[in-house]
């Protein structure tokens, strides 16, 4: 996308992430609910296809790999595994609405991590927008008809690990002076190797319900398609965070849940109560307030730069 101006590249990256993120939720939910495909095995397929996609991109000259030490990428690979596994378990155990809204808690957690660990400061008005977002998530989760302790435990772990992962993605790109493709090129195979070792302890490998079980051709095609979409999601996440920030990426991500909720109601008959609707509205108001304040902040910064001699 080098031929596009900077704003055009950002818009294109956001649109790719929007479309791919919505598709991956429905594809994964379909594979879990309708086909019973094992969770960790599907994650392994995603990692493997992501690495294969990056290998092809590198062979075609899309980027040049940069030499990195395994120890530099290890924390990112571990958090990447946890991020995908726990969010997939959350999707498997919760309705799509609760799964998607629980992810909104990533933004407040990222703000806390960046404040405590990296000394980053946020204006009070930005912090206050996190209140309605958090309240909306709790309202939706509490009144969800499929509320269960295990599902919420997976959702909570997913939020914690995802927050760490997204903070580290941005920090590592700047620390190691690498772009999104260069970093993911090393991290994807490392994460695949970790899962390859873990899977036999938790899921069958052969036979019914195993990754090498008697799946139909249509099931195999769906799994491979899910892997291709996951590659697009992973790459766009790295690219967007590297060019914006983890908080901005998450605020953009919250808008996806509107379409995802609608799809969950239509495709999987997930019920939606009035109280859950209030929770969604509350979350949306917080997101809109954050977006307004961030745009005002950017305009103010541009004005200050223009006034300098």
Q: Which properties best describe this structure?
A:
309 residues, mainly alpha, 0% strand, globular, Sugar_P_trans_dom, TPT_transporter, transmembrane helix, membrane
Description:
The protein is mainly alpha-helical. It has one domain (12-300). Helix content is 80%, strand content 0%. Helix 4 packs antiparallel against helix 11 (256-268) and helix 6 runs antiparallel to helix 12. The longest helix has 34 residues, at 274-307. The mean pLDDT is 76.
Summarize the structure.
By secondary structure, this protein is an all-alpha fold. It has 12 helices and no strands.
Q: Would you spell out the secondary-structure blueprint of this structure?
A:
Elements: H1 6-35, H2 39-59, H3 70-93, H4 96-102, H5 106-118, H6 124-142, H7 149-176, H8 180-202, H9 217-243, H10 246-254, H11 256-268, H12 274-307
- SSE order, one letter for each helix or strand: HHHHHHHHHHHH
Question: In the residues, how many domains can be counted?
Answer: 1
Major pleated sheet? none
Overall pLDDT level? 76
Q: Separation of termini?
A: 34 Å
Question: Strand percentage, roughly?
Answer: under 5%
Helix content: over 70%
Overall geometric form: globular
Protein name: Solute carrier family 35 member E3
Subcellular location: Membrane
InterPro entries: Sugar_P_trans_dom (IPR004853), TPT_transporter (IPR050186)
Membrane topology: Multi-pass membrane protein
């Amino acid at each position: 996308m080098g031929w596009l101006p900077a704003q055009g590249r950002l818009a294109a990256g956001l649109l790719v992430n929007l479309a791919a993120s919505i598709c991956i939720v429905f594809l994964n939910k379909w594979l879990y609910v309708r086909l019973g495909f094992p969770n960790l095995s599907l994650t392994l397929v995603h990692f493997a296809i992501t690495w294969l996609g990056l290998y092809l991109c590198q062979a075609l000259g899309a980027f040049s790999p940069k030499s990195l030490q395994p120890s530099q990428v290890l924390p990112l690979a571990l958090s990447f595994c946890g991020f995908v596994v726990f969010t997939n378990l959350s999707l498997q155990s919760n309705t799509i609405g609760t799964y998607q809204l629980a992810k909104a808690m990533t933004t407040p957690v990222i703000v806390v991590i960046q404040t405590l660990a990296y000394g980053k400061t946020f204006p009070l008005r930005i912090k206050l927008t996190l209140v309605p977002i958090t309240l909306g998530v709790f309202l939706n989760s509490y009144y969800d008809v499929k509320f269960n302790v295990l599902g919420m435990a997976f959702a909570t772990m997913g939020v914690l690990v995802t927050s760490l992962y997204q903070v580290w993605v941005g920090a590592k790109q700047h620390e190691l002076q690498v772009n999104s493709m260069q970093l993911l090129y090393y991290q994807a195979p490392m994460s695949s190797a970790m899962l390859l070792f873990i899977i036999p302890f938790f899921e069958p490998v052969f036979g019914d319900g195993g990754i090498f079980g008697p799946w139909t051709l249509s099931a195999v095609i769906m799994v491979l398609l899910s892997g291709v979409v996951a590659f697009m999601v992973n790459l766009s996440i790295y690219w967007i965070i590297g060019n914006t920030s983890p908080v901005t990426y998450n605020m953009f991500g919250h808008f996806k849940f509107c379409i995802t909720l609608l799809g969950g109601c239509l495709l999987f008959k997930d019920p939606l109560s009035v109280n859950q609707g209030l929770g969604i509205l509350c979350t949306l108001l917080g997101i809109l307030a954050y977006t307004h304040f961030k745009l005002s902040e950017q305009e103010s910064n541009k004005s200050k730069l223009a006034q300098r001699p």
